[in-house]
Every structure is written in C-alpha cells, then in structure tokens.
Amino acid sequence: MSNRVGRSQTRIVDSVCSYLPSFLSPTVSDFHAEAHHHEVTLRSPRIYVTVLGITLACAAIGAWGGLSLGPAAFAVLMVAVVVTGIPHGAVDHIVAAQLYGLSSSLRDQARFYGFYLAMMAVYGALWFVVPAWCLAAFLVMTMYHFGQADLAYWSLPSVTARVLYLSRGLLLVGLPIAAFPGIVDPIFDAIAGVQVSSWPYVATQSAWVCAALIVQHIVMLAVLLPQTPERPDGWWREFVNTAALSALFLTVHPLVAFAVYFGLWHSLGHILELVRFFNRTGEPTSLPGFYKKAALYTIISFAGLGLLYATTQSFGFEDQMVALLFILISVMTLPHMIIVEHLYQQPETSGTSPREVAA
Ligand SMILES: CC1=C(/C=C/C(C)=C/C=C/C(C)=C/C=O)C(C)(C)CCC1
Ligand SMILES: [Fe+2]
After folding, report:
1. Atom of ligand 1 nearest to the CA of 340
2. Dihedral of the alpha carbons of 190, 191, 197, 198, in degrees to the nearest 10
3. Domain edges within the chain
C-alpha cells in the first residue's frame, strides 16, 4: 500500500514539475522527500514561489502603469477559467461519491444529481425573485469558500476557523469592490440593480475602506494564531500572502486580480488538494490523471460558455449575458461549496477511505 502511494506521488511530483518553467524545477530529492508525506500543495516551495512571484509581478505591472492590464483582462480571465478554474470544480461528482459513499447504481446517481440539480434550480429561480439577496448570499458564500480553501490547513477549532475564513474572504471579495467601485458598479447593476458606489463610504472614502479590509484580516490572523492547536508550518507566510494579495487587488484591474487569485491561488491550490484527497482515499491520481477525471464536465462547461458567447455575438444583449453568466456561476458554486465544505471536514487519516467507512 505505502509503496503504491509512494509511486503515485512520485508521478504527481514529476507531472507538477513538468508544468513549471525549468529554472524553477525542484531538485528530484526535494520534491520526493515531500511526496512521501503527501505534501504537494500550494505551499510546496517551488509552487509557492511561482504563484507568489506571478502575483507580485502583476501587482508591480499594475502599480507601474495604473490600470494598464485592463485591455488584457478578458483574455487573462479566460486563461485562468479554462486552465484551472473550471477543472477545479469538474470532479465534484467523484469527490461526492467518495465522501457520501455513493455507488454507480442508478438509485445513488439519481439521488446525487437530483439533489445537486434541485439545489441549483431553487437558487437559480430565487435570482429572478430577490436578486439583491441572491447577490449578497453569493458574495458571502464566495468569501467563505475562498477563505476556507486558503486557510483550512491551519486546523482551527470550527468557530474560529469560520471567522478566519470569512475574514480572508472579506479581504478578497471586498478589495476589488472598494478599490474599483466604478468598474464593479455596472456589473452589479446589470445583475441585481445594486449600486456599489452608493454604499456608505465606498465611493467617498475608498482608501479608508480598503485599509480597513486589510487591517481586519491582519488583526484576525494575529489574534487567532495563538489559538491554533499547533502552529501550522509556514504560518507566517499568511502575512506575506495578505500583503501580496492586497497589493494585487489594489493595483490591477479587478478582473485581472480576480483571474490571478482564482486561477493560481484558489483553483490550482484546490486541484493539488484534490490530488492528495484521491491518493489518500485509495484512488491513486496524478496531475494528468486529475485532468482526465475533470474532462467530461470541463468540456461540457466549455461548450456552455461557447454557446453563451456565440449568442452574445449574434444577438447583442451584452449586459443580459454578463448577468446570466454570473447567475450560472453562482448557481454552480452553491453545491460546489457544500461538497468542498464536507471535504475539509474529513480527517486526514491516510489509509482509511471514506467509502470504506460509509460502507
Ligand atoms: C465580478 C466580481 C466578482 C466576482 C466573483 C465571482 C465570479 C466569484 C466566483 C466564485 C467561484 C466560482 C468559486 C468557486 O470555486 C467579485 C470578486 C465578487 C467582486 C468584483 C466583481
Ligand atoms: Fe472552489
């Protein structure tokens, strides 16, 4: 068993390495030492340095030329969404099967897709009834989900963990809104008739709102750190990450900042966590293996995006299409977030598969 896992981990390491520029490639022993502890994560040295480096480079370019990355925003966002964004959620059905002990029987499958689709249908319908509330719910959901993916490795007690997740998410979602209300305004207006710039302080005291968003998170990290049962390795990096992500969101076009965070921090990080999860639950998976598992729903999503784009091109309705896309994203994020929440509640005992436990 341990041999098999060891070998599969080596394969992951090799495939991760082949994705990195050669000057960043880790020495073989470096990564293999980590591999034996299932530890290829966003926090692994070379991956971390690459992600942090790209983030700081974008922030530097943004600081240099103001909003100069604006014209590239759509392209950058598409790359992030296609390469890691969509695939990171495209294996949810496999994760759910493991977590809930679902078999491939028609009954189990119908149960899963029934719940999943019903949840999406209810939330989707609510968007047409109470759009502003649905937007608010989506922002809070996104905050929690982003914060959780970033900080679950701290293993805090559950209430404190949730406070910390929301605090990180408030920084990530709040900064682009507070820093560029003029850009976010038409988007939220088209979706839910919400005027960000009419929120108290956002338009008039933008700098102070941004400062408050950053400070609250630094304070939260500092206060909760002593409460972690064991200080996680590299805890101090969260202060570096907070600084880097704040710089990113303050300096570049919000869609570019979102693309960098969502593609490299959230989605790449989650993909690496999922590879670890599959290996832990007796389903040895390499990085290419992950993409193979994600292929079906990734391709279906591409087709959906293409259809939406083609419709916009031929009929106009640009604002309506942005709104529709946003609603679709939110509707798909709801079940994704619930499954990921369960995933993080799994104790990390290697060797016992949840499927075995559930059986
Ligand atoms: C447009 C826009 C936003 C979009 C957020 C989105 C689209 C979040 C998607 C989250 C997903 C899909 C999570 C799944 O893992 C922000 C950042 C709130 C604020 C600035 C304007
Ligand atoms: Fe996610």
Report:
1. 15
2. 100
3. 2-358
